[in-house]
Design a protein that fits this description.
It is built from 16 helices and 18 strands. By secondary structure, the protein is an alpha+beta fold. A hairpin with a 4-residue loop joins strand 5 and strand 6. The chain is 37% helix and 20% strand. Helix 8 packs across helix 10, helix 8 runs antiparallel to helix 13 and helix 9 crosses helix 12.
Length: 457
């Protein structure tokens, strides 16, 4: 049902009319993410301040068949939050309250606009932290939407392993709760995991109950430099098989290191590198680091350094987390493509070799990096969205890398989500199971207003 003045109608639904905007700059800011996918501005942006406003806006949109897209920090890389059908963007950044922290129960309740860095700053005083770390200072709501993970996932798992329950507003404005404060439950279907990773296509998260972890007593970081990516990947696989209690293991190639050095002013050796982190007791960590150094040497490492100073460790991981921004800075006039797949860990060295070969064959200066401890890796490169030849080449690279992963029992996305960019591969991966997903979508969002054109197309 058309609404002649959508912004005016929505201003009636929120306490402060100033939290509804149709300003061209605001619309443009909510019509893109950091990827190469084509921008598309919404017709209006609403900034709800409480759950009741979310309920009213959703009920309004559902009755009138107006598309609606939840929006966090806009750091997604598969066009996840681009409102491809226009309509309403629901910016949840004003809902940024840490509702409750329960240190004795190792959990926190937070609104979706809370960012991961602000949450961990609050938790540090209680000796706790929330592990998922997708690099960017993403919002918790966005991280729920894409089942984000990051470098800590090899030890602590992705968002699905760290969310105990959700408060979700459905398409018709009804609110449901999917979990509780207990550490486990066998009651009914696991709706929490259904909504985690659904990218705003099934409902809008207005609160999340998160599983917290104790900050480790002792931490050491390591950095191994290798003559080639193959050697670094072999060392990573050996570390996984060794049983050492590492909390992070990240591989970057020489192109990544060069870009990071330029972007961050660091002087890391321009060679394939494994970034490592170990946490636990001092005795156990020291033993694990010694094992890691020996395994790195066996794989042909050129150098291996370890560091326990907190500032030095922070610099090291800051450099790794800024890899995507560093690559983007090499050709600022272009857009970033980050092909994200995962394979069984044993297939990872060959998979990385394959990704490099595909990019080189296409003549693209791609970088390869990844959370190699859990088989998740990325090929990143820049593309001009207006150049049909470059776009076609990028699509060929993505297709080959994804299909290589699928042929080995892997997945078309390990952490970025399907968004608009991986829709075709979802059916290749799951076949008829996609029809079950579509049936669930039809039940929860019968009018198809929630983030249309994403995940299932």
């Amino acid at each position: 049902m058309p609404v002649p003045d959508l912004a005016a109608a929505l201003r009636e639904l929120v306490a402060d009319p100033g939290r509804v905007s149709d300003d061209a700059r605001v619309l443009a800011d909510h019509g893109r993410d950091i990827s190469h996918h084509a921008a598309r501005s919404p017709d209006v942006v609403v900034y709800p301040a409480e759950r009741a406003e979310v309920e009213r806006v959703l009920a309004f949109a559902n009755e009138r068949r107006i598309p609606l897209v939840p929006f966090g920090e806009g750091t997604s890389v598969e066009g996840n939050v681009i409102p491809s059908a226009g309509g309403i963007t629901l910016d949840l950044s004003r809902m940024n309250e840490i509702v409750e922290v329960r240190p004795d129960d190792f959990l926190a309740r937070v609104q979706p606009g809370v960012t991961r860095i602000s949450l961990n700053e609050r938790l540090a005083g209680d000796g706790l932290f929330f592990p998922p770390d997708p690099g960017a200072d993403a919002s918790i709501g966005g991280m729920v939407g894409t089942n984000a993970s990051g470098s800590n996932a090899v030890r602590y798992g992705p968002m699905r392993h760290n969310v105990l329950g959700l408060e979700v507003v459905l398409a018709d404005g009804t609110t449901i709760n999917t979990g509780g404060l207990a550490a486990k439950s066998s009651a009914g279907y696991d709706l929490t995991r259904l909504f985690v990773g659904s990218e705003g296509t099934l409902g809008v998260v207005t609160e999340a109950t998160l599983k917290l972890h104790r900050l480790p007593h002792f931490v050491m970081a390591g950095r191994g430099v290798f003559p080639d990516v193959d050697a670094a990947a072999r060392a990573a696989l050996a570390l996984v098989r060794s049983g050492t209690a590492f909390s992070r293991i990240e591989l970057v190639d020489e192109h990544t290191v060069r870009a990071v050095n330029a972007y961050k002013g660091t002087d890391y050796a321009k060679a394939p590198t494994l970034f490592l982190e170990f946490a636990g007791t001092e005795v156990a960590v020291s033993g694990d680091v010694a094992i890691a150094e020996k395994l790195a040497q066996d794989a042909g490492s050129l150098a291996f350094e370890s560091e326990e100073d907190e500032e030095a460790r922070s610099r090291l991981w800051d450099a790794r987390h800024h890899a995507a921004w560093a690559i983007s800075a090499t050709e600022p006039e272009k857009k970033l493509i980050s092909t994200d797949v995962a394979v069984p860990v044993s297939a990872m060295p060959d998979a990385i070799r394959h990704a490099r070969a595909v990019a080189e064959r296409e003549g693209v200066a791609a970088i390869v990096l990844g959370h190699v401890g859990d088989g998740n890796y990325h090929a990143l490169f820049m593309v001009d969205p207006e150049d049909a030849g470059e776009v076609a080449r990028a699509e060929r690279i993505t297709a080959e890398i994804v299909r290589y992963a699928l042929a080995r029992g892997g997945t078309c996305t390990g952490e970025h989500g399907i968004g608009a960019g991986k829709i075709a591969y979802l059916r290749e991966q799951y076949g008829p199971a996609v029809d079950v997903m579509r049936a669930l979508k039809g039940t929860l969002d019968p009018n198809g207003i929630l983030n249309p054109g994403k995940v299932l197309g």
